[in-house]
Amino acid sequence: MGLLLLLTSMLLSSYFHSGRVVTAQRLFKIRDITLSIEPAPDVTRDTNVTLRCQAFVSSSGQEALSREYRIYKDGNTIYSKNTSTSEDLLYPLSEARVSNSGKYKCKISIEQKDMTSGAKKLTVAGLSKPLLHINKDVVSEGEEVTATCTAPGETGSFFFYFYEDTKEIQEKQVNSNQAEARLHFSSTGYHKIHCGYTVLVTPESFKSKESLSVTVSVKELPIVAVLEIFPESKIYEGDKLDIFCSVKNNPRSTESINLYLSQGSQLLSSGYSTVNHSMVALAKDPEEFECRLEMGNVRKFDTKAVSVTELFSVPTLTMYPAEVFQREYMTLNCRSETSASERLDRDELTYTLDPTESPLISKVNGVFSVKALLYDFNYTCVAKAKEIVKRSETLTVRPKVAVSTPKISVVGRVVIGQSFKILCQSDIGSLPINYTLLWGYDQLNITTVKEPFQQALFTVTVRKSDEISKYMCEARNGQKEAPLSKRLNATVIVPLTNPILTVLPHLPEISEGDHLYLICGVNGTPPVTFKWYRVGNEHPLYTITTHMNNTNYRVSALSKEHSGMYYCEAINHANILVRSDLVTIEVRLALWKKVLIGGFCLLALSVLVVVVVLCFKSKRGKREAAAELSVKPSRPKSDDSLTVNLTHDTEVYNAATVRVEGAAVSVWSERRPAEANDEESSMVSNEPDVEYTEVVHPRPLDPARVPPKKGTDTVYSELQNSPHGATDHHDYGSVEYAELNSEQPGINHFPPEINHHQELPVD
User: Fold this and answer.
1) CA angle 21–24–25, rounded 5-degree value
2) Which tens digits make up the pLDDT trace of 239-260?
3) Where are the transmembrane segments (predicted)?
4) What's the pLDDT tens digit per position in 79-92?
5) Which residues contact 686 (CB under 8 A, 6 or more apart)?
6) What pTM was computed for the model?
7) Structural domains of the chain ordered from first start
C-alpha cells in the first residue's frame, strides 16, 4: 500500500510543477457575432419568428471550444445556452405577440473573452379583440355586478379599462391577460358595459380594439327619502321653520338605513329612521334643503328650496363728504333700502355703529356725526329688528392729511437760455396733490402727483437772472385754501462771453529773459475753468478753475522759443466753450545783447572810417608833394649837417636834433604861410597845409668813409599847418622826406660815389 502511494505521488509531481497545472494553451480569436430576425423584423401577430445568433471564431486546435450564448431583450437576459459546437444558436418565438416586440442582442463568451452583436428591433403588429363577461345582466338597485375582461392569447403587462357607455368607470393593471371588476350603478334603468386593454412594451404601448357591449338592467327599490318643511309658504325672516327627513317604503332588509339632513354644505342633523330640525328663517341666497338616505350601495335623495321674504335689506353705510381731513367732522348714514312694511314698523328697525368707542353724535336714527381720527378707521353699520341682525359692509375712513406748504427748488443748474426743471414738493399731505407753478401770480402749469414717489416737475427757461425769483408754486389736495411756496431762489449761470487774452508786458516790449503774463478774461458766472494753448500744441499749457472772471498764466525767463501764437479757452457750468482771438508773441533780443552788438558795429565802423581816412590822406599827400616839388623847390642854405625835428607821430618822439656828418643845422621850423591873393584867402581849407622842402646833403669828400652810392639824395620835409594858420603840434607831426636821386644832375652835382646815407641818431 505504501508503494502504491509513492507511485501516485510521483505521477502527480510529474503533472504538477511548483503548484501550477501544466496545460496546453489554445489560441483562438472571436472575429465577429451577428444577430438576425427571421423571417423579417416586422411581422404580424401569430407569426413564427426565429432569432439566429451566428459567431465567427478562429482557433489553433482541433478540439471544440466551449461557448456560452446569451439572448437579451431590451437589456434583460431572456435565454442562455452553453455549447461546444460551432453551429448557429437559434431562439424561436412561436406565434409572436405584441409583447415580443423590442430590441434584441446576442452575446458569446469563450474563456473569459466575449463579444456582443448589434441590436435588432422586432415589431409585432395586431392584438386580439377583448371579451367581456358579466355574472348578472338583471340586478336590483344597489346590487353589485362582476365583470371580467379577457385578452385572448396575449402576453405581457396589461391595463384593462371598463366603460359605461362612453364613460370610463374602472381601470385595472395586471400581468395576465384577464382582469375582473366589481361594478355598482347609481341609477336605475339599462346600462351598457364594454371593455378594452393596452399592452405595455417599454417604452411603447399598444391599445386593442373595444369589446362588444353588454347590457345590465337595474331595477329600482321602493324605498324613498321624504323631506317636509313647515310652513310651506309666506315665510318671512324671523319665522320659525320645522324640517323633517324620513324613510318611506322601508323593505325591512337586514342592511341599516342612514338619514342625513343638510342645507347647502351645512349638515343640520342625521339619524336612522326620522330626522327633524327647527331654525329661524333668514333671507339669504336661495339654498336647498336635502334629505339623503343611504342603505348599503343604495342612495336616495329628496330636496326642496325655501323662499324667505326679507324683513329688511342689508344696510349700507355711507359718509359725507366723500373726503375728510384729520380732526374734521363727517356724517355717517346707515340705511336699509327695503323693509317688509306688512310685518315691520319703521320704529322697530334700529341702527348702530360698530365700534362704539369713537365719539358719536346721533340725532336721527341711522345718522351719526363723527370726528375724523388721525389714522384710518373701520366702521360697520348694524341693523336690528325682531331678533334679525344684519351688518353692512365695512366702511374704511381714511382721513386726509392737509398738504403742507410746498418747497420750490431747481433740479440741476439754471443756465440762461437753457431749459431746466423746477421741483415743487410738500413734506406731508395725502395724495393726490395738485401742484401749480406760478410766474408772479400767473398760472403756468399744473401737475398732479398720485403715487408716493412721483415728483411734480416743471420745465421752464429764463432769459434774465432776475426772472428766477418770480417763480412760485401752490399745492392743493382738497377744497381747502392752497398754501403758497416762497419765491424761487437759485443761482443763475450766465454763459461765458467776450473772451479776451491780454499780454503783459506789451507786445513790442517783450524781450528775452522777461516774465510774460497771459491774462484771460471773460464775462459770465464763475467758477470758470481757463485753459491756455499755443498753436501747434493740442494739449493745454496750463489749466486752472477759479471763482474769478479773469486769471493769468505766467511764463518765466522768456526765450526765442516762446515766440508763437497763443489763445485761451474758458468754460463754466453752462458748458458753453468760448475761445479768445489769437495773439502773436515775438520775443526780441535782450537789451544788453543789443548794446553789445551796437558797440561792436560802432567799433567796426570807426576802424573802417580811420582806415579809409588814412588811405585817402596818404594818397592825397603823395599827389601834392609831387606837385610842390615841381613848382617850388627848396634847397638848403649850406652844406652843413641836417637837423630834423620829429613830431609824436614819428618813430622818435620829442627828439632834440638829428646830426648828419657832424653838422648842427636845424631844418625843421615853423614857417609863415605865404601871402595869398584875395581869391585864395577867401577860400579857407579845413585841412592843414602841407609844404615840401628839398634838402640837398653834400656827399663827403672822403670816399673811403662812405660806400659809393649812385644818384643824389633828396630829403623832403612836410610841414602841416592848422586850418587857422598856426601849426598844430598836438594833432599832427612834422615829417622830413629824403629822396636819393642820382638822375637829376641839376640838383646834386657831386659824383655818386661820394654820396652816403646814415641812420639818424636818437638822443
Assistant:
1) 110
2) 889 999 999 888 766 678 899 9
3) 595-616
4) 999 988 888 999 99
5) 723
6) 0.42
7) 28-125 (2.60.40.10), 131-219 (2.60.40.10), 224-306 (2.60.40.1930), 315-397 (2.60.40.10), 406-493 (2.60.40.10), 497-591 (2.60.40.10)
